[in-house]
Specification:
Two copies of one chain form a homodimer. Chain A is of the alpha/beta class. Chain A has seven helices and ten strands. In chain A, the strands form two sheets. An eight-stranded mixed sheet of chain A has the order 3-4-2-1-5-6-10-9, sandwiched between helices. Chain A has a two-stranded parallel ribbon with strand order 7-8. The interface between A and B is large, with 41 and 41 residues.
């Protein structure tokens, strides 16, 4: 069983986290979910969600990493200690998945430089300004470049996670999961109705 | 601002809760989110989600009520004390929204008797057996009967919550929210690709 490590921080976006968690939670034989923040303890957001986390130091860093977005990323991109830790965790991970403005955090580590990626469409200008050395796609539900999966805003994380499952474990399993959670999977990563010009 | 009271219990289904929470969280001028369990404290589920809640006794019962589903409902339908408390909370609420097998809990209170409702499609036979006096719809993304909104499994809760916003505050607001969270809203409550014969 591979760890599936979710990064949390204050003011994360609720569904960026719990959409992918719902999908991964349906295959507990394959992935073990864990929630981590820098020092552990209670993390809260503007939706009054209050969640208990373990510290980064207790993470099995051989697992898949999920980096959500949310307003909290605006401060964290300038937190050199956080970014350094995130870089180390991302380097160890076999796959790194970001949702929404989570890609700004990953971009800040420098690991996306020269790679293809996408992000939240309303936050596009801010994210692409954080790190201009990334080939930012203006139109994509999600983008894959090697071990890096980056998705558009919020709900796109669900589609990307199903796409990740499909790539790694086969499309049939992704279909079974989407049926189980009665989710109408938007499986074309290049179809993006929320793209902005 | 109207309270939006989310009922939690061990082994709730993650996305049943956090899908609607993401939608409601986008209009903090209209709704104030709160998370409640019978006695308050930490609630956990099989996805390792660990969330902090307030006790039912601290709820402002004039708010909208959200009842999620999940494996935890299988035990709770036989917990007479919980069902009696849920009945009182549901009677006080101007609207009651259920997701997935959350409708089994609401049905057990007797408040759905003679009314139209739906539920998770894979759990259909179990839920409809819990309370046979309900007109259970085998094919519906969500069903409205007076103040009761009941949805199909998991992800259908997101569509229903947007439908609820549309009904109460206008379709334009529901569209703005779905754009903000980049969610492809399935707005036809009668279109149900997961219906079973």
């Amino acid at each position: 069983m591979i760890p599936f490590n979710v990064i949390l921080f204050d003011d994360f976006e609720t569904l960026d986290v719990y959409g992918p968690v719902e999908i991964i939670g349906k295959i507990p034989d394959k992935y073990g979910l864990g929630f981590y923040s820098v020092n552990g303890g209670v993390v809260v957001n503007s939706h009054q969600v209050s969640v208990n986390t373990l510290p980064f130091s207790e993470m099995d860093t051989g697992g898949v990493l999920l980096i959500p977005g949310g307003m909290g990323t605006r401060k964290l991109v300038d937190d050199a200690d956080f970014i350094a830790r995130l870089k180390a965790l991302s380097q160890s991970a076999p796959y790194v998945l970001t949702v929404c403005t989570g890609s700004a955090l990953l971009a800040r580590t420098g690991l996306l430089r020269g790679k293809n990626a996408t992000t939240n469409k309303r936050g596009f200008d801010w994210v692409s300004g954080v790190e201009s050395g990334v080939h930012w796609a203006r139109k994509a539900r999600w983008v894959i470049d090697g071990k890096y999966y980056t998705s558009s805003g919020v709900s796109a994380g669900i589609d990307m996670t199903l796409g990740f499952i499909s790539d790694v474990h086969g499309e049939k399993l992704a279909e079974i999961i989407s049926g189980y959670v009665e989710y109408i999977w938007n499986r074309d990563k290049d179809s993006d109705p929320f793209a902005v010009d």
